[in-house]
Design goal:
Strand content: 5-15%
Order of helices and strands: EEEEEEEEHHHHHHHHHH
Number of helices: 10
Shape: elongated
Number of strands: 8
Structural class: alpha+beta
Number of domains: 2
Largest sheet: 2 strands, antiparallel
Radius of gyration: 28 Å
Length: 369
């Protein structure tokens, strides 16, 4: 059922019926006070799944011997439901639901069946009686609370909705750190999506630059997890094949992210404190070189004019190098232990940037001619 409580053609039918239908019947249980239904029903999840979508269960009394011609054979005697989406997460697992004895009120699908709806009679006083299990096979929903927390926090940054403001900086950092607590299976399945989001936050931190530092630290921890814990995916050089595949085959592009900026971050984010600053003279000198290079890049103005960006863009390879230089502690150690990944990332981004720049020059010259 959708948010308007209308049935959706999303249930796969049986071999004797249509391929897709909006309802499915179980086997009939006769004279059994505690019936067990072993039917397996396959449902196609809607693409635009929202908080209003739900599964509606209707219990019928089957009349075996109608007294009169035209008597109803199936008489509805109870109802229950499961909201499919809650707080942005797909609901799966085992549920024990109460059974309502009356027609459900309007907009019931947005509520949990655990809510005792007013003016509705319940079987045995709202006691949970109906046991049902939902199992999802999906490549869209992570089915992991930690990954869902991070992806929802990231999504909130790009949604311009006053009713649902973006997460705070503290909540965003907490969501980023929770990524490494995810289960191995969904982490591997959504690894490339997570890496893309972390790199986007490094290049375009929505708040202070400390968000980039947290992303860089988590990125190093993910590389360590892929290399050490998932050792069955390592190549002859001890590198995780998941990471080498990401670098060599996955499309790493200089994305124009639409992450919202806070009111205090209209200019380039600045370092929060000197505690994160490099201490050695070599690191300070390297940081000065990077900053000087960034300033010269921002001040470049094209003679042709129409193919150069109007606003300065941060280069991903420069941001990675910057975070590496100013990192410390465990983040710095993990970056050096897995330096091949970060170095190859910077090379890939630099090549992509040069190709994009050369293509822009070519388009500009072609237009001028």
């Amino acid at each position: 059922m959708n948010a308007q409580e209308k049935p959706i053609y999303a249930i796969f039918g049986k071999s004797s019926g249509p391929n897709i239908t909006f309802s499915a019947d179980t086997a009939v249980s006769y004279h059994n006070k505690t019936p067990t239904f072993c039917d397996e029903i396959k449902i196609n999840l809607p693409v635009d799944l929202n908080d209003g979508h739900h599964l509606l269960f209707t219990f019928f009394h089957i009349t075996c011997k109608p007294n009169k011609v035209g008597d109803e054979v199936k008489i509805p005697i109870g109802y229950s439901w499961i909201p499919l989406l809650k707080d942005g997460r797909l609901q799966t697992g085992e549920f024990i639901l109460p059974i309502a004895l009356e027609q459900l009120p309007q907009s019931y699908g947005y509520l949990s069946p655990d809510v005792n709806l007013p003016n509705v009679r319940w079987l045995e006083g709202h006691k949970p009686l109906f046991d049902v299990k939902l199992e999802a096979i999906t490549t869209v929903h992570t089915q992991d609370s930690h990954l869902d927390k991070f992806l929802l926090a990231y999504q909130s940054l790009s949604i311009n909705d006053k009713k649902n403001p973006p997460v705070s900086e503290a909540d965003l950092k907490d969501a980023i750190r929770s990524v490494i607590k995810a289960r191995p299976e969904p982490m591997v399945a959504f690894l490339y999506v997570i890496l893309d989001k972390l790199l986007a936050l490094i290049a375009n931190p929505p708040y202070t630059v400390s968000v980039s530092a947290v992303c860089f630290e988590v990125l190093g921890q993910l590389v360590k997890i892929c290399t050490v814990l998932l050792n069955s995916f390592r190549d002859a050089h001890g590198r995780s094949s998941l990471l080498t595949t990401y670098i060599h085959y996955h499309k790493i592009a200089l994305k124009e992210t639409s992450i919202v900026q806070s009111n205090n971050s209209k200019t380039e984010p600045k370092l929060e404190s000197t505690a994160r600053m490099p201490t050695s003279p070599e690191s300070k000198h390297l940081l000065d070189i990077i900053r000087e290079f960034e300033r010269t890049n921002y001040m470049k103005v094209s003679v042709e004019g129409d193919y150069e960006p109007k606003t300065p863009k941060k280069m991903m390879h420069e941001e990675l190098a910057l975070q590496w230089v100013i990192s410390g502690g465990a983040a710095r150690e993990m970056a050096f232990l897995n330096s091949w990944f970060f170095l190859e990332l910077m090379v890939c981004f630099r090549i992509a940037n040069l190709l994009s720049h050369l293509f822009s020059i070519y388009i500009g010259l072609k237009r001028s001619n």
